[in-house]
Amino acid sequence: MFRRTRVHDFPRINPVRLLDDLKTLRSFGANGPGVVRLSLSPVDMEARRWLAGRMTDAGLDATIDGVGTVFGRSRKPGPALVIGSHTDTQPTGGWLDGALGVIYGLEIARALDECAATRDFAIDVASWIDEEGTFSSFLGSRSFVGDAIDASLQHARNRDGVLLGDALAQAGMANVPRVVLDRARQRAYLEPHIEQGGRLEASGKSIGVVTTIVGIREFQLCFTGQRNHAGTTPMSIRRDAGAALVAFIARVDAAFGRLADADTVWTVGRIDLDPGSFSVVPGKADMYLQFRDGKPERLHAMESALAALVDEWNVQHAVQVELMPCDGPEEPVVMDTTLQQHIAQAAEAVAPGQWIHMPSGASHDAQVIAHHIPACMLFVPSIGGVSHDSIEDTAEAHIVLGCEVAARAAAGIVEALRVRFDG
Amino acid sequence: MFRRTRVHDFPRINPVRLLDDLKTLRSFGANGPGVVRLSLSPVDMEARRWLAGRMTDAGLDATIDGVGTVFGRSRKPGPALVIGSHTDTQPTGGWLDGALGVIYGLEIARALDECAATRDFAIDVASWIDEEGTFSSFLGSRSFVGDAIDASLQHARNRDGVLLGDALAQAGMANVPRVVLDRARQRAYLEPHIEQGGRLEASGKSIGVVTTIVGIREFQLCFTGQRNHAGTTPMSIRRDAGAALVAFIARVDAAFGRLADADTVWTVGRIDLDPGSFSVVPGKADMYLQFRDGKPERLHAMESALAALVDEWNVQHAVQVELMPCDGPEEPVVMDTTLQQHIAQAAEAVAPGQWIHMPSGASHDAQVIAHHIPACMLFVPSIGGVSHDSIEDTAEAHIVLGCEVAARAAAGIVEALRVRFDG
């Protein structure tokens, strides 16, 4: 358990150094206020080489591994806490999504090294490749924990059709070894991240202690009716696939509304009517439905409700609907409760009353790593709840506060690991 | 008025010649069972030259005019009935949409010429260019009646970006004169056409006497909400433009349902959610709404209801909607009632009880010409109500029957015109 050390022995982060590194990283792929730094692109590789250099400056043994992950291994003996996130971005991304957690890790490694009480604490720092899925989501963290990535290496392509394997070869990593989890040494994982939502801001809090990364289900629903002339086909004999889709959404909303709690979300993100013109009654219509929740049993109930709606619809209507799962389901991942306590105690010490427990509605590398070692996440507020957009931002005061809390939590976590390790 | 002539004096069409000509025309641009014959394309021009040749064979003075309309002028003195339609097709069109009416005109000109009682009757035959709007809808009929087409000639482009003026020059028609309506001679217009809908088939009838070509309104409705992460944004604080659009459609359906009669139609043909992905709450959503009715007062009531729904919505909701008219409104066009009677009497004589009065839900050249001379339309059934599709078809028995009715109607119309002319 976390043992309180004396106040003057706490590691102190350097806010100027932290912000300078974040802003330098922002310059690689800067695009207005945002950043375009797609995995393995030339500018992404430039940023990775810069990051490896900063890790080396911090006294870490830095490497860019065989999939592109930048890993800074502490020279100190274990047990080690891994702090990481990602430095690749969305096609038009913001400057903090991922970058924040990586630079926090770098700053925390430096800060602990500069503090007498924590000088021997091992902090390994990671920037996992391709969290955003330019080629294959969570490629770096999946590779690190030993998940099978051969299919990704052979078949994954980016939007331009470039194969992942070719992109890695192009970036000079064809025969570079991959960093893999050393379970004897690396005993816990911390991923600081921007919230990417508006809960902290709405509640006036500064720190989120993540309880769960929610599970996700994605379905395509394809409606098949009869394409017809929009002028000559009376309403009474139409089989309008688009009208069916719209009516079906109302049923989904009603059914999910009955099952949901305040954290449940569902989204129709895309609708395609075929052929998609003023004068043609749509013969086909597709919708893309995603829902997320932190409780596996609620996700299953929602899946069952959706399947029942489809069956019911097809009995009642001439326009038929087919339900097709997209991607594998992502199950909710609970964050390690002991690590959550470390973050909560650090937050309460640094910013009393200014933190909350909350789920992560977004996916993160932590959900991959949590299946192998205890993992936790810390959130800082996103201004306006905006993310995956060039205007994504966080107040500098929150950036600094979040790193202070994370540093204190990291110290506590490693201290507890060392007690257990030695014990 | 129509005076009944003796039975043996009726013009008799030649079914084999009629079907042969239709099938030969089908061979220009044949594409499976359908036809691809876009206005002014090489194959369209080939078909036009063939058609002009068939008109010449029929004793008509045939010309391809300065916009591409094929016009076969009878050498007989007026008054003349113009029978026409179009031989251009949709990008993937059927074989009868337009072609039927043009070949009916050709066959009727021949049949009347071969009948002692109608030998002196003048039938002019037209294939108006570009009814389907490859460059500019109804170009040929608009040019014929003297509507301004200069803007079309200068600015209209096809999907490949080719200017209409360039396409005409390319087809050798840069300095060819245009055929224009001779009001002293051309006193009525008949356009036979496939129904392009399923009413005749559903009612078991063979001939439709068109009462009105319905009016059309087209609107784009743009919903503006807040784009957000679909995982991290609670339902309670979302401003989902797509969800707003779906809810709005239900209101439109309810409001239009209260105003509609059995012939009123409305269609949401296209929906775009932005950015259109599983994981993003749509920040913008567009829908394209068209409605059609034969009564101007109902179209106005629907427009008013739609505007009221928009105002009401914007007061009630954070997601705002903007209503934007697309293209000019098309007002309903009533077919000449005397000409309708001629068709009805001919139908009753040839196929007693096998005809109905009905509106045309689709647009036709007749709506352009009806503003200048009395115009009427006759429909034959479309199998399965299908049109604007390669499988568009009509039973041969219906093709032949429709031409018999049209020929008898044409004889009656010209006879009546001649009585008035002489009188």
Automatic annotation (TrEMBL), chains A, B:
Pfam families: Peptidase_M20
Binding sites annotated in the UniProt record for Zn(2+) 2: D97, E132, H388
Cofactor(s) of this protein: Zn(2+); Mn(2+)
Cofactor: how bound: Binds 2 Zn(2+) ions per subunit.
Gene3D superfamilies referenced in this protein's UniProt entry, alphabetically: 3.30.70.360, Zn peptidases (3.40.630.10)
Annotated Zn(2+) 1 binding sites: H86, D97, H193
InterPro entries membership: Amidase_Cbmase, Bact_exopeptidase_dim_dom, Peptidase_M20
GO terms of molecular function: hydrolase activity, acting on carbon-nitrogen (but not peptide) bonds, in linear amidines; metal ion binding
Keyword field: Hydrolase, Manganese, Metal-binding, Zinc
SUPFAM superfamilies in UniProt: Bacterial exopeptidase dimerisation domain, Zn-dependent exopeptidases
Transmembrane segments annotated in the record for this chain: none
Subunit structure and binding partners: Homodimer.
Family membership noted in the UniProt record: Belongs to the peptidase M20 family.
Listed name of the protein: Zn-dependent hydrolase
Originating species: Paraburkholderia steynii
